[in-house]
Design goal:
heterodimer; A: alpha/beta; Rossmann fold; 2 domains; six-stranded mixed sheet; four-stranded antiparallel sheet; disordered C terminus; B: mainly alpha
Chain lengths: 320, 249
């Protein structure tokens, strides 16, 4: 029983009218692990989460969460999970404490138990001082933490976090990451979606990359990084003209491109002779390339290699 | 059922913190009552022995109840448009429990508002001849009307995509008492309007309230009023279930 995966999806499909959102998603998430679904906007991340959390029925395919079918055993699944979405699902006109008490009552706790649980969660998420203020007065990070706390009232086995840090400042993001790590430490299964490669890298035991409604790669972030070249040669160009010319010469070999920093990246094995030959080829006049650096591949490279476009910065793909 | 009670508590708290909506629902009928009594009242001959204020109060009460109840559409739409609905659904809260919470809060809100408007009416010369039983019947009919309109309003809230659109329902409820006997006798209206004015749901409610308050023969207007309210309520409850499922599918 405990060896059964917490989440299992086979061939999930969903279309809205003529638009195919999911074209067959297969996933398996081990109990007690942190799993990240990584992809750009419109890749199908939110739809996947909505199907797994029983809010949207799939057009085809099956999924089991906490051992129950998300369509046939919907009430059982709902009792085992919590969902924290992209939009804070708390009442702005209720205080933090009232919000949590209400959630407690709705999960079946008595009045006194609900209040105790609310206090415990407020404490854990650093909201005790703000407990008696209406949630409308909270900062973005506080509201997100309250939202997550509201999802934890019923002690779920599986927690879905849909883009938990989108729109947060770096400090709040860091606080949220600590919270997710704490959850993982407690042994709950966390399924999160993100468009931030760093977030998946930081938090997740396993990562699935989605694009166009399909899983295009899955593995630990280390495995994914090894799927592309082990290392990357970053070239800093002298000016915009040199940047454009060099990008043209490299063509399909480019795995990274940042027009703002005048930086281009190509896969390399770090061999000096080959690096020298490459530099001679793309910069025969020795004026275009100003600096270079060899570095380990990031999930950005993985993403670009797997999907043919960048994950978080569409501007770059437009420039190339 | 216990979900509905928890959600009623929530809806009441939200109402208490959104006092301007409650105040509007009270002030508007009071102002309209002033307009009718002091601006138009002198020119309107209702053919009754009592003053115009006594003639017009049932209509004002209905306006107050209808307008206040229609606000349920806005509160329901706010929930449906925000993220909270997904949270409720993931806790297996039913659409009926959610709507029932909003409707219950609406009934409480409007009971307070209606009582206050009655108070103001007394201050400006409203003198009914109703006995205690008549008052009980008046309260019962008003409650039934508030309940039915609140639930119907919730259906509009489930259809509307934005709170602004949901607010449109309050307009309908503001308008419906006019083509009825609420402010002027129906026979003073053009002939083509008689059919609608005499048979629309607001008219028997008005007639029943007025007859009870002025201790006049009620006829079957009270049963007609309650049948209309009961019918609207049954349809609205069924419709809200269907709409909620469709909206969240």
């Amino acid at each position: 029983m405990t060896r059964q995966p917490a989440i299992e999806a086979n061939g999930l499909k969903k279309a809205y009218g003529a638009v195919t959102v999911l074209a067959g998603i297969d996933l398996s998430v081990a109990r007690g692990s942190v799993f990240a679904l990584l992809g750009p906007n419109g890749a199908g991340k939110t739809t996947t989460v909505r199907i797994l959390s029983t809010l949207t029925p799939p057009d085809a395919g099956h999924a089991r969460v906490a051992g129950y079918d998300v369509v046939r055993d919907r009430p059982r699944v709902r009792r085992a999970i919590s969902l924290t979405g992209q939009y804070a699902a708390v009442d702005e006109m209720q205080t933090g404490e009232e919000n949590l008490c209400m959630m407690g009552r709705l999960t079946g706790l008595g009045r006194v138990e609900a209040r105790g649980r609310a206090r415990e969660l407020l404490e854990r998420f650093g909201l005790t001082d703000a407990a008696r203020r209406t949630a409308g007065t909270y900062s973005g990070g506080m509201r997100r933490r309250l939202d997550l706390a509201a999802g934890l009232v019923g002690r779920p086995e599986v927690i879905f976090l849909d883009e938990p840090t989108t729109g947060l400042d770096p400090r709040s993001r860091q606080a949220m990451w600590d919270v997710v790590r704490g959850l993982a430490h407690d042994g709950v299964t966390v399924f999160l979606t993100t468009q931030y490669l760093e977030e998946a890298d930081q938090l997740a035991d396993r990562v699935a990359v989605v694009d166009g409604g399909r899983v295009v790669a899955e593995g630990t972030s280390g495995e994914l990084k090894r799927q592309v070249a082990g290392e990357r040669l970053d070239l800093v160009l002298a000016d915009a003209a040199a940047f454009a010319e060099t990008a043209r010469r490299l063509g399909g070999r480019l795995v990274h491109s940042d027009a703002d920093r005048l930086t281009l990246g190509v896969a390399t094995d770090g061999d000096a002779a080959r690096v020298r030959a490459l530099l001679d080829e793309i910069d025969p006049d020795r004026r275009a390339v100003r600096r270079f650096a060899v570095r380990g591949a990031t999930l950005d490279d993985v993403f670009l290699t797997l999907t043919g476009h960048a994950a978080t910065t569409p501007k770059e793909t437009a420039d190339v | 059922m216990s979900d509905a009670i928890v959600l009623t508590g929530r809806a009441v708290r939200l109402s208490r913190r959104n006092l301007d909506a409650v105040l509007t629902a009270m002030l508007l009928p009071v102002l309209l009552m002033f307009v009718f009594v002091y601006f138009f009242g002198g020119a309107i001959d209702t053919g009754t022995r009592t003053g115009y204020v006594t003639y017009v109060v049932p209509g004002v009460m209905l306006l107050c109840a209808g307008f206040g109840s229609a606000n349920t559409a806005v509160t329901v739409t706010n929930d449906m448009a925000g993220g909270i609905i997904d949270r409720f659904r993931s806790l297996d809260v039913s659409g009926t429990a959610l709507v029932a919470g909003h409707v219950a809060a609406s009934v409480l809100r409007n009971t307070v508002a209606t009582t206050i408007v009655f108070g103001v009416a007394f201050l400006i010369g409203f003198r009914p001849d109703a006995g205690p039983l008549d008052w009980l019947a008046v309260a019962g009919i008003l409650l039934a009307f508030i309940l039915a309109i609140s639930w119907l309003s919730a259906c509009f809230g489930l259809i509307a995509r934005t709170p602004e659109a949901a607010g449109g329902f309050t307009f309908l409820m503001m308008f419906l008492p006019y083509p009825s006997s609420a402010f002027v006798p129906i026979d003073t209206m053009p002939g083509w309007l008689h059919g609608f004015a005499a048979h629309q749901p607001v008219t028997p409610v008005i007639e029943a309230l007025r007859a009870l308050l002025l201790d006049q023969p009620v006829g079957d207007s009270d049963w007609q009023a309650l049948s209309w309210c009961g019918g609207i309520l049954v349809v609205a409850v069924a419709l809200s279930g269907v709409l909620f499922r469709r909206r969240t599918a």
